[in-house]
Write a structure and sequence with these properties.
127 residues, alpha+beta, Alpha-Beta Plaits, 32% helix, Ribosomal_bS6, ribosomal protein
């Protein structure tokens, strides 16, 4: 199952309403057999430009980052479900590398010295 990051921009909502939106989004992911690893809040920010969603213009939004494993054939259904949600302004899926590839990239190769330094023949003669 490929690993994805879901960048979610929601309307500028109060905390209780925001909790409901996140629960609804997580429930949509779980219905499509996704495995959520982490949900990270990046706070409320001004949007880089005005965005229109459901016939309403937005200038501020809450940013969230979902880290999840999602089946490839379920991805279009999740996109469609999130596009119908009136509280979500924008969603973006970014494919990530597998954990195993990241581990291999982080582990440095260790070189060991198998033989000690041997003096050249002429230097051994002088000693």
């Amino acid at each position: 199952m490929p690993r994805y990051e879901l960048l979610l921009i929601t309307r500028a909502l109060e905390r209780p309403q925001l909790k409901i939106v996140l629960q609804r989004t997580a429930a949509n992911l779980f219905q499509q057999e996704a495995i959520i690893r982490k949900i990270e809040s990046m706070g409320q920010q001004e949007l880089p430009y005005r965005m229109k969603s459901n016939s309403v213009w937005h200038t501020h939004g809450n940013y969230f980052l979902f880290d999840a494993y999602i089946k490839l054939d379920k991805l279009p259904f999740i996109r469609k479900e999130l596009s119908f949600d009136s509280d979500i302004i924008r969603q973006t899926f970014i494919k990530k590398l597998c954990d195993f590839d990241e581990e291999k990239a982080r582990i440095p190769k260790i070189y060991e010295c198998t033989t000690s330094y041997v003096l050249p023949y002429e230097d051994r003669k002088r000693n």
